[in-house]
Amino acid sequence: MDRLSFEVEEGEVFGILGPNGAGKTTTIRMLACIVSPSGGSAKVAGYDIVKESVNVRKSVGILTENPSLYERLSAVENLEFFAKAYGITDGQRVSERIKELLDFFQLWDRRNERVATFSKGMKQKLAIARAIVHDPPILLLDEPTAGLDPEASKLIRNLIERLGSLERHTVLLCTHRLEDAERLCDRVMIISRGASKVVGTTKELRNRMGGHPKLEVTLREVTREVVDKVRGIESVEGVEVDEGSARLLVAANDVEAVAPYVVRALVNAGAMVTGVSVFLPSLEEAYLKLVRET
User: Fold this and answer.
1) CA distance to 165, 210, 289, per residue, from 203 (Å)
2) Answer CATH for 13-200 from 3.40.50.300, 1.10.1740.10, 3.30.360.10, 3.10.250.10
3) Model confidence over 246-283: pLDDT tens digits?
4) Which CATH architecture does the domain made up of 211-280 adopt?
């Protein structure tokens, strides 16, 4: 890592984005006290990851790319084993927590079956249940939807949303899947070669790297007169013309405020307006632009 510095607020879903080899997994493993940093310092749940590693481990649940489940054991047996490993010795408390989690992850009906018979999506859900069986305040997730089919990926994203919004876990999510970050994260950090390049909400990153939203207007036909009329509006900063699709992209500081004036100008110029919408720069465009620059 190269002087990576960031803070995550309590109850926040914070995403770390970056290409393969950027340092996402290394960051997660250091924060979970699986590997030791060669320099610098970090605190997790208020504990120093070097001096108070035992307390850090008690405070976090971690999901690695490999679920690391015991496939010869059942779902219940896996969770019982890890609950004891985390120091939970109250049998009734363990049973209640296991039922709560397996119900939550829709695995209760398969609780006594060997994990070897589970689908990859089911194993991923059980691995998340294992990570939070001791009810940690902080959850570290490394590529939770990697290798899953679209249906299983959607299910895992839904579950992470529920963990953040209902159970109020602080979640650190490492991913290279931009759709996951855009849907799940309150803020994201893009890293490249172990260094932080930008931190902010997905909207801030889109605007910063991909430009501000634009007004997209589709016409029956684009003419020079029509374009000149739109360019003549005081608050319009620029107009891009896509003649092939008869589309105008209108740049303005406040596209929603300028939209009625654009439509009125087009109608007065005799244009046939077939569609009006706000065109948002994608997080993917911002991400790719930033990664290319590093």
Assistant:
1) 20, 10, 15
2) 3.40.50.300
3) 999 999 988 889 999 999 999 999 999 999 998 776 67
4) 2-Layer Sandwich (3.30)
